[in-house]
Amino acid sequence: MRDPESLTIPISLDRRARRPLQEQLAEQLATAVDRGQLAHGRRLPSTRTLAERLDVSRGVALAAYEVLYSRGYLESRRGSGTYVAGRPADRPAAVRALPATASRCELIDCTPGQATRDGFPLAAWRAAWRHASFQPPLTCDLPRGGLPELRQAVTEHLRRTRGLVSEDHEVLITTGAPQGVMHVLTALGARGRRVAVQDPAPQVLGQAVENAGATAVALPANRDGLWSGVVPPSCTAVVVSPDGQAPSGTVMPALRRRQLADWARRENGYLVAVAQDHIVPSAAPLPRLLQLAGTRVVAVGDFRTVFAPSLRVGYVLMHRSLLSDVTWSVCRGNDQPSAVAQSAMAHLLAGGHVTRRLRQLGRLFERKDALVRAALAPLRPAVRLAAPGTPGVTVVHLPDHVRAEQVHAELTLRGVAVPTLASFHLPGRPAGNALVLGHGHLPDRALRTALEELTAVLRAGRAVIDRASGL
After folding, report:
1. Pairing of strands 384-385, 314-319
2. Are 383 and 321 within one domain?
3. Least CB-packed of 125, 196, 235, 336 within 10 Å?
4. Which string of b and e fits 126-153 if b means at least 16 CB within 10 Å?
């Protein structure tokens, strides 16, 4: 049975006045609607409830509603009740719909790391949240480390998709991979110390190191982005993505993985392996750092680009000896997802929806990568595209006389945001003359528009580029 709707505006009826009570009531309700005190779509009390609250007969309430119905203030919804009707002529101009324009005014954002709506498994998504919301709310604080069913589901997911199996390691739930990196480094006592980070890498990783109070230094790499085999001195940890470093998608070969493991054992350092959502296929047969360095390895990740960034659920896989310290950091920062979000994520994982979505996205990204390469093929050999790496991302290398920063500026003027490769490097680090085109999240129409604008800028030659450089 639906709870009686309350009336939150003051109603004053004067029984000594000559004016009938129903007219007084109707006028005061109409005034409340006109002033916005009773908003469009607001459900009103039934005539019986209203009469009881105002201590009048039901006939008075019924007559007042009839007046308001006739004047267009109220509408009836069958089986639901009486609601304040929409009155377009009375709405403030600030909330009226703006006229449609033919021009495109929304920015096409080609920054990597975003989720796509293409083929979104809406039925599974709704079922997961329905399942989570059907559970009675917790009557106590969230379990330290996260809901047991989610921790178990993530453990099984990592075993199936990445071969990460260790009886001595446990999963801890966080709100995302960058947050996981920060909490791990905090627990390791990295404040005031140096932490090596693969370079280039997403800016959020360097920021996570700084948020832990540490200093991020670049892990030396060659021109192709491969680690040179040297770890800078005095580093307490190394943050890497061995199975596909964004944005290039460079996969760390087996030899370099063994060298990292040797460094961790020799220097008592730690390896923080950031698991990208989508595994680069060439990384599948290579040994995992967890297998090579065991207790010195912590894996972090999340599912933000699999479904949606708003699903802020991540994980940390670490040796039991670190569990209490990392858990303390997470709890101190109140950095756990809600119980409902954790339950929904557990349902998605247990039902196999995450692995199915990953396979679906793999096919989608392959198709869009082919579209990008076909559109930019006429610009070769001056414009060189890096080999396929991070799924949904293409690195576009430009000739020396066409600077990436200038192309970026001109594209921004045209409503297309394409970051430069330099924006993925730590400050002061040398960067290649390239753009990083994130395309996996874009609808086909937006992607084609972005490619048309990029092609036009690159074909226009120095005249257009020089105009951008003078901004």
Report:
1. unpaired
2. no
3. 125
4. ebbbebbeeeeeeeeebeebbbeebbeb
Q: Write down which residue in 94, 126, 153 finishes a domain.
A: 94
**Three-state DSSP class for 83?**
strand
Dihedral Cα 93, 97, 98, 100, nearest 10 deg: -160
| Residues 360 and 346 reside in one and the same domain | no
Q: Given 296, 324, 351, which residue is the final one in a domain?
A: 351
pLDDT in tens, 365-400: 999 999 999 999 999 899 999 888 888 999 999 998
Strand ranges (E), 335-410: 384-385, 393-397
Query: How does DSSP assign 222-261, residue by residue?
Result: -TTS-B-S-PPTTEEEEEE-TT-BTTTTBPPPHHHHHHHH
Distances (CA, A) of 330 to 201, 316, 346: 24, 11, 19
CB 284 within 8 A of CB 276: no
Is the domain of 222 the same as that of 269?
yes
CATH code, domain carrying 73: 1.10.10.10
Q: Within a 10 A sphere around the Cβ of 249, how many other Cβ atoms?
A: 25
Please tell me the pTM assigned to this model.
0.73
Instruction: Return the closest-CA partner of residue 155 out of 142, 136, 141, 168.
Output: 168
